[in-house]
Design a protein that fits this description.
The protein is of the alpha+beta class. The protein has 3 helices and 6 strands, in the order H-E-E-E-E-H-E-E-H. It has a 6-stranded mixed β-sheet, covered by helices on one side. It is globular and about 45 Å long. It starts with a helix and ends with a helix.
Length: 151
């Protein structure tokens, strides 16, 4: 019984240390979908961008050009889709923690969510009043805006 209890404790601790099963390696295969949202203390979603692969194989981006703006839809080319993958790789977004929280309690602020589903793996990360130190999230936002703006 003591061995079982000790093995259970070690298993839980190892899960906590390794990010509860999160891989921290770049997923393989084609990017199937992507979502980035940011919400502020104001009602509604501040910014939203999502990439969806439709049943017919078309890849579509739905994104806002500006905060609290309408979603604009654009069919993506393979090259445009690869731009998202490049950002994820360059910023090593696959190493993001699953959850980001500030050390102190914040009652008014922002929340965000990022996920990218590949054929062989998923990246998922979210935060409330804290985020990764790199520019990955902002680069995803800027790239999506440039695509729907035609820049």
């Amino acid at each position: 019984m003591k061995r079982f209890a000790m093995a259970s404790i070690v298993g839980v601790l190892m899960g906590m240390l390794t990010g509860c099963g999160v891989s921290h390696q770049m997923p393989e295969g084609r990017l199937v979908s992507l979502e980035y949202t940011r919400s502020g203390s104001r009602a509604g979603t501040q910014y939203e961008a999502r990439v969806v692969t439709e049943a017919n194989g078309d890849v579509v981006l739905q994104a806002m050009k500006e905060n609290y703006g309408p979603l604009i839809e654009k069919k993506l080319t393979a090259e445009e889709l690869a731009g998202f993958v490049k950002i994820i790789e360059e910023e090593q977004m696959y190493k993001y923690k699953e959850h980001y929280r500030p050390l102190l309690k914040v009652l008014d602020g922002y929340m965000w969510h990022f996920s990218a589903k590949f054929e062989q793996g998923t990246i998922y990360s979210e935060g409330s009043n804290a985020r990764p130190k790199d520019d990955g999230l902002e680069r995803i936002r800027e790239y999506a805006i440039s695509l729907v703006s035609g820049e």
